[in-house]
Design brief:
With 457 residues, this protein is an alpha+beta fold. 35% of the residues lie in helices and 23% in strands. The protein contains 9 helices and 13 strands. It starts with 6 loop residues before the first helix and ends with a strand. InterPro entries: Jacalin-like_lectin_dom_sf (IPR036404), Pest_crys_N_sf (IPR036716). One of its GO terms (molecular function) is toxin activity.
């Protein structure tokens, strides 16, 4: 078995072939990994990629069980997913048989049978009591379902037309839209907070509060343990809230790496009706990542003597199309500010005055940011790098990455999807000061980023 050919690899390659097939003239669609598939019917390509790739015994549904184990309840994965995989086997049998059918008239009959069974299977899924947990499974099945329907259009079978196809797309759209938010209503309850704050009034020290606690993501098996002294017990409420928010946003981000494939559904009928589009709600076509800071990241143990130099003055800017980013930095990131297409200036995070850098010429579709690298230390954000959709970068801004002994955490956020389907659309954060006796002004202590689906690819 090819261990490196994952669920994500199979889905990405198939979607690339689909896009290349229906939008070959579009310069944004990169060449596919294996061009031999371009000479096969799309449904044959799907069957090979999903069920026969590298002669593996593990088809894409077996892989989705492993892929979803950090997305939803492991019990659901082992019971419900297994149940639906068994129920899917008659459809899989028909798909494999399709590969060896040569005559068009027999293929047409075979496809009619597949359409009927896929439609019925979808109806059965919608009756499940565990529907919100089945989204990863349903996404995988949706790609198969729509490939079968597209083949039916191609063969002009008597029982299926484009308007019926659009109606089924609409039903899937409603399904994914309705259950996306329901899933995360459940998901946030899987992140628990346990804190203990002791107020020692008899202490001669300024720091009268001793805080101990942890935030745990039960599904993702992530834990942040925190202990510190401070003169303000409210600080720790804010710390734990931000850690929980960061963990939830990371869970959403991991989920979106699966969910992003539903945004390709209209591609299945693009060459039959190019003007057809789906308007996905902003609530499911965009997401925040973060906030990151030395007190909220990384997972593991944190032990601060004093948090009084972190302000927790988090900005709440409205996101949009970013056209420019200004920042100042030297040893650390002193401040950062986004500017938007409507002429709006986002809130400046931090006030320090290092060397100014301007990232300009950004827009909605041809030049945008798809990923960000962060390095933290000294209680603050020390280095940042922005990566563009063409693969170029700003380079590392801020010098903390050169001081290995000062680094407390680093992370790269994005890109999401091999075809850069999401662009940076918002920046928020809060300030703080270096934990020294010198006052260098307010710098960047916390930062979070919003990514939004690129409208057209």
């Amino acid at each position: 078995m090819d261990k490196t050919y994952s669920w994500d690899d199979r889905m990405e390659e198939f979607i690339s072939i689909l896009c290349h097939t229906v939008k070959a003239e579009d310069s944004k669609i990169k060449s596919v990994q294996n061009e031999i598939f371009l000479n096969l019917p799309l449904l044959s390509t799907l069957v090979i990629l999903f069920f026969l790739k590298q002669g593996s015994n593990d088809d894409i549904f077996v892989q989705i069980k492993d892929r979803a184990k950090d997305i939803t309840s492991k019990e659901i994965v082992e019971t419900e997913f297994s149940y639906w995989i068994i129920n899917f086997q008659p459809i899989k049998k028909l798909l494999l048989e399709y590969l060896i059918i040569q005559e068009d008239d027999i293929r047409a009959i075979h496809i009619e049978n597949l359409v009927e069974k896929c439609n019925s299977f979808f109806e059965e899924i919608l009756k499940s009591e565990k529907l919100i947990h089945l989204i990863p499974f349903t996404i995988t099945f949706a790609i198969i379902h729509f490939t079968v329907l597209r083949e039916s259009l191609k063969l002009q079978t008597s029982n299926f037309r484009i308007n019926e196809f659009k109606e089924i797309i609409s039903r899937y759209q409603d399904h994914f839209t309705n259950f996306f938010n329901q899933f995360f209503t459940w998901r946030i309850d899987q992140i628990t907070t346990n804190t203990k704050i002791i107020n020692n009034l008899s202490s001669p020290s300024l720091f009268k509060f001793q805080a101990d606690g942890e935030v745990k993501d039960i599904i993702g098996n992530k834990i942040v343990k925190y202990s510190a002294k401070t003169s303000n017990d409210q600080v720790f409420t804010k710390v734990f809230d931000l850690i929980k928010l960061r963990m939830l946003n990371e869970a959403i981000t991991d989920f979106m790496k699966i969910f992003l494939h539903i945004f390709s559904l209209t591609n299945f009928i693009y060459d039959y009706e190019p003007s057809y589009n789906i308007s996905w709600p902003l609530s499911i076509s965009s997401f925040w990542v973060g906030p990151y800071g030395t007190d909220t990241f990384p997972d593991g143990s944190h032990n601060f003597d004093d948090n009084s130099k972190i302000f927790y003055n988090m900005s709440e800017d409205e996101s949009g199309v970013i056209t420019k980013i200004k920042l100042r930095c030297y040893g650390i990131i002193d401040n950062i500010q986004a500017f938007y297409e409507d002429g709006r200036a986002g809130k400046k995070i931090g006030e320090g005055g290092g060397t100014e850098h301007i990232i300009s010429g950004l827009n909605k579709s041809s030049k945008y940011i798809v990923a960000v690298k962060l390095v933290f230390g000294l209680g603050l954000l020390g280095t940042i790098e922005f990566i563009f959709n063409d693969g170029n970068t700003t380079g590392l801004l801020g010098l903390l990455h050169k001081k290995k002994h000062e680094i407390t955490g680093s992370i790269q956020i994005g890109p999401f999807g091999k075809h850069n389907k999401f662009r940076l659309s918002g920046i928020m954060g809060g300030g703080g000061k270096i934990r020294t006796n010198n006052d260098f002004g307010e710098n960047v202590a916390h930062i979070a980023f919003k990514f939004q689906l690129v409208d057209s690819l």
